[in-house]
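Listing S7. Sequence submitted for prediction.
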Amino acid sequence: MHDNQLLLIEHLCRYNALDYQSCLRILDPFEQVTPTERSYMFRPLTKNGYLKKRKDGIVVILAKGRALFPDVTPLISLGGPKTLDRVIKVSHMAMLLDEIDIPSSGEICDYKWLYFIPSARWRTIGRGILSSTLFLGMLIMPGDRRYAVYDIEDGKMEWQARAEGSLLYTKNGDRETRAAGMIFVCSEEKRLAVAENIIRQTMWYRKQLLKHDRIERTKPTRWSNQPIKLKADYKHVYLTTPQRLRESIMRIYGEDIAGRVFCPDATRMSEPALGDYEDWPYRYFCNPACDLLKFVYFFAAVKKHTELRRDNPYVGEEPYHCVCIRPEDRPILEMYPDVMGSEGLEVYEYTDR
């Protein structure tokens, strides 16, 4: 049996089920063979009774396959038909993370540097998490940083702001399991559209979500009954795709260091809505990891200052706003032309050396 075949069986021992196309991806992660050859690599696993491929395209582990890894403990139960879709999503996300050398775990591990705990296990660790939360698991980083991971696909999903916010609450003084933010994984081709829609939804309702005055003139189109809107409680909301996952996680990890590239002598600000750093008369919003909430803070700050100057002749031009972004996020920044045209605005771009 080939190594990748064993990797697939081991993955299914942990997560019980996975969609067929993802199974083929594990068997041939670098796409070195044709789809037909890939299917030939899969066929012996079902023929010899290690796995079973159902009519709906879902692959499940059988007893013979589980016997190959008797020490591997399942991290999620298969459940009934209603929970199967969620199991597949969690399993798929664990596969994507495993591809970039981020393993799964069923508990908090002090000896691991970076790892993923699936949602079913995290619910037994965290306190006060509401049952309707849609997160797939918690990505654990060094420095007491935990990020709730979501698969939002094209962004059209039922979003329950209160339920998702429960991942970031402190219950009974317990801070050990409180998330430091969220990571949204969407499809590559929908990335910019998803970012724009989430930002517009949040900007329209920012008076209650971010405690800023509402300035927007046109109401955005609703994608679903409960479109995704961001709250200040979420702290950070990073947007990435399966193709960018490794790069994004490394950028999140090094965000604080990258933040000071353009303002090394500036003072750290205590209120995120006003900026990350201040070197008067400049305020810097440093966004090296595509934090959608930080984009909202930036847009709101510039719009509010512009409105104050328009309504009060005694308000000066200062502070000037600076935003630091990745080149690929420039279209997100340009979604509000009035912000880009504001007086004194400076835009800096991070480049990978």
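Caption to Listing S7: primary sequence and predicted structure tokens for the chain studied. The mean pLDDT is 89. The first helix runs from residue 3 to 15.
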